[in-house]
Specification:
Number of strands: 4
Radius of gyration: 13 Å
Number of domains: 1
Strand content: 15-25%
Shape: elongated
Bound molecules: zinc ion
Distance between the termini: 33 Å
Helix content: 10-25%
Order of helices and strands: HEEEE
Largest sheet: 4 strands, antiparallel
Structural class: alpha+beta
């Protein structure tokens, strides 16, 4: 069975983020700094290509995208 190239689904993107990757490019997000406001959150990360950024909630957890990028994981909406 062939897998044809098609539009990324929201689930695909969420999987990438869960793996520490940019939801659009699928490449690893690089660390840009610490989240000083939460002693528990080890770092902030950003995609080197598009600048999508997110934070980890706690040590070892998956990246959570910043609010302005959450729509990327929200399925196919107009706009
Ligand atoms: Zn990217």
């Amino acid at each position: 069975m062939k897998k044809s190239r098609r539009k990324q689904s929201a689930a695909d993107r969420q999987n990438r983020v869960n793996n520490g990757c940019c939801p659009i490019h699928g490449i690893g997000m690089t660390q840009i700094g610490h989240n000083a406001s939460q002693s528990d959150a080890p770092f902030e990360a950003s995609c080197p290509r598009c600048g999508i950024s997110g934070k980890t909630d706690s040590a070892g957890s998956a990246i959570i995208l910043d609010p302005q990028f959450l729509h990327l994981l929200d399925g196919e909406r107009g706009g």
